[in-house]
Every structure is written in structure tokens, then in C-alpha cells.
Amino acid sequence: MSTWSIVLAAGSGRRYDPDVLKQYEEIGPWRVIDLSLARAGEVSDGVVLVVGADHADDPEPMADLVVVGGVRRSDSVRRGLDAVPADCDIVVVHDGARPLASSELFESVIEAVLAGADAAIPGVPVTDTIKQIDDGCVVGTLDRDDLVAVQTPQAFRAEVLRRAHEGDPDATDDAALVESVGGTVMVVEGEATNLKITTRHDLGVARLHFG
User: pTM to 2 decimals?
Assistant: First the structure.
């Protein structure tokens, strides 16, 4: 079974700093995306790195292919997916801004797909009370026992992921697109340490991890 990974690093990170791309920040001797690429490379036959146009010509020796992303996250995934060989069996999609995902987590989602799922995603329990609001007012309280916070890496049967992306749909993650075409999405145990770098505080936490 052939496995390829798509590492997404084309986002602008507006919540982080409009003048700095978080995926290129440094954690020790590495950039954030170096750590994400390294983990993806450990479990993949090939890795596609999706970058912004300004970084299209940057040397990226840890990636097998580099492509320029699109306007939306889903557009960037499709650009990466177009570069994945047609005979690939499993595609893993990972956010370049999640540098702390372990190789074991990558293996866990891949194994779930090998076991029969169309997709497998990491989830961690929701610890805060979640309120549903409408125009600033609470209209309901959700049962957090039925909720998980979803992470990447996410693994997919390649043909199902390609079908889910037909027609250029958009979603906050690819599992939602697979759900929309009737695919089975399994949840595996995520990692509390697998934070997505969104703020400078997150970067500080990641640096402490490697400190």
C-alpha cells in the first residue's frame, strides 16, 4: 500500500502576526514546517509540501514535491492532491503548523484506514463547557461527552478523498468533505501536546517542548 502525505504551509496565519508566517518560525534549530515534514516523511512514500507563492522557489529538501496553494485551505489540499501519484492508496493531510504530532499518531490514523475506514482523524476530549449562541445569546448547552476537538494528521483512502474534493467544495477539514459524500470517518485518540500554532504563546509552548 502506497502512502503519501500532504503538508499544508500556504496559510497566511492572520491570527498569529500579519508580518510573520508562523510556519517558518524557528523551534530550536528547526523551522516549524521542518518538524511537520520530518514526521510525515517517517510514514510516507512521498511528501508534498504546499506553500504560498512567495515561497514557491525555496529549497525544501525534506519534501519530495513543492506546489503553490490556493486561496482557501481546501483549494490548497486539492493542489497537493493533484501532485500525489494516481496509484497512491492512502493520503495523509497534515497542518504544517502542528509540529508536535508524533510519528505514532501518524501511524495510528494510517492503521485505521488500513483496517477499513474511509478516513481516520485524531480527536481529544473537550474539557470546557460548550454553549451554542445566536446573536450573542445562549440558545443551548452541548453535551461535551459527545464532542471531540479534531486534529491533524488525518488519513484517507485516496480514491475517497479525491471523490470528496470533486466540484471544489470547501470545509475546515477534509474529514467533513468525506462525511458529505457518505464516507466512514473513524476517530482515534489524539494527543494533548499536538497543538496547532495559532498565537505566539503557542510557539512559546512548542519551544519549551524542545527546550
Answer: 0.96
